[in-house]
Known about the structure:
Blueprint: H1 3-10, H2 21-29, E1 39-43, H3 48-61, E2 66-69, E3 81-83, E4 86-87, H4 90-104, H5 114-129, E5 133-137, E6 152-157, H6 165-168, H7 172-180, E7 188-192, H8 197-205, E8 215-219, E9 224-227, H9 250-265, H10 276-285, E10 294-298, E11 301-306, H11 311-326, E12 335-339, H12 346-359, E13 364-367, H13 380-389, E14 395-398, H14 402-413, E15 421-425, H15 427-436
Parallel strand pairs: 1-5, 1-6, 2-5, 6-7, 7-8, 11-15, 12-13, 12-15, 13-14
Antiparallel strand pairs: 2-3, 3-4, 8-9, 10-11
Helix pairs in contact: 1-4, 3-9, 3-10, 4-5, 7-8, 9-10, 11-12
Amino acid sequence: MSEVRAWLEELRGIGMRPGLEVTAALLARLGMPQMQFPCFHVAGSNGKGSCCVILANALTLSGRSCGLFTSPHLCFVEERIRIDGVPISAENFDASLSKVRDAAEREPVTLPSYFEATFLAAMVAFADAGVDRAVIETGLGGRLDATRLCVADCCVLTALALEHTDVLGDTLAEIAAEKAAIVRPGALFIAKWTYDAAARKAIEDAVPPLQRSLAYWWRYDRAMTIRFDNANKSHRPVRKIEGFDGWSSFQQDAARLAEITLGFFFDNSVGIVVEPAEMVESAVMHTVWPGRMQWLEHEGVPLLLDAAHNPSGMEKACEQLRSQMDKDSHPTPGVILLGCTPQEDIVGFLHPLIELIVDGEVEHVVVTEPQKGRRPAVPASEVVAELEAQGVPAKVEQMVEPAAALARAVQLAGGVPPQPVLGIGSIYLVGNLLEAMGLDNRESMTVLRPAPEKQYWT
């Protein structure tokens, strides 16, 4: 491990530290690299990473160099900082991080947290590379998240859920207020509609009254956008759209939010003719977002990985799988490989998966414990006990090490033809499984593949 990476690892001891003061001070010492490129800034509980990667790839496919900052990483830290879909090199990361360390150790010494250091390194790397634009995913919340210091001219809020209530608040409205605080003066703001009235009011209250002409709800249930200052109108009748039943997957949500964002942001008023639907369609075709509904093959066995790390994410993922099973668009998993980090509602987290097990007549469940994460894993014995308490009809067993659990799941799925394995739960579990399969490299973590020659605007 290089000296500067050892310094970065030591920063883990600072833990999670909401607040902007340290990051602001270090950006100033670094010469304000974030001022050299505009950003799309994306917050939310679920789907924000998918929205970010589609936006970034659409920009790259347009011929614009685009930086992408996301967190956490699956296998190696360079994944957090991508340029045109590719994680920056280890040498580039070390060089950027060294500048951050030098700034931090200048008197008075001002040490960032691990997350703040990686965000600062991203700003340095993007500025040094001369990117045209960046897409930035928030880490936690929004109001006090270090990423709020990027220069955003467009902000997007994806689906909300009860998460990190010890930091963000006990209600969806409190969480909504924290996340919607990424809104910037004079910037476009697009939010996914929520049926929670208090949360909806919190989001609308985050936008100054004179700016509401720049703020839009995306009504996914009606496939339409509504300006904030028109949101109290009835908007009847509901439009009937062929092939749309009011439900969409995270991937569809992300693509639609990206299309709306590009459609509003790049229009004829800035001299650019754009076809956002075509751009996003192309971006989706060329996007590989590791660990998010990602189909792979391991030792001849189909493997589906998804980082459904909270109850709402698990519910959405299982809804999507059941829908696909009903339509025969994807095979039913025969084995589930599960591991998670602490949940405030473990019953609510497991319930959608239990329904999938019952509906899909899943035969085997292997429970493991994600490794190398910021948060410790829920002991496999506790998850097994809860599954058994809920009367899961499948055969449930536990193997603490994820690599051994993967080997066991593949063994159970073997046959002619083999049954698919569903690996689901913590994002750290997904990283463990990718590492066990030898997919912990830059090529596997490149999210734009391959880049086509066609460009849609110049």
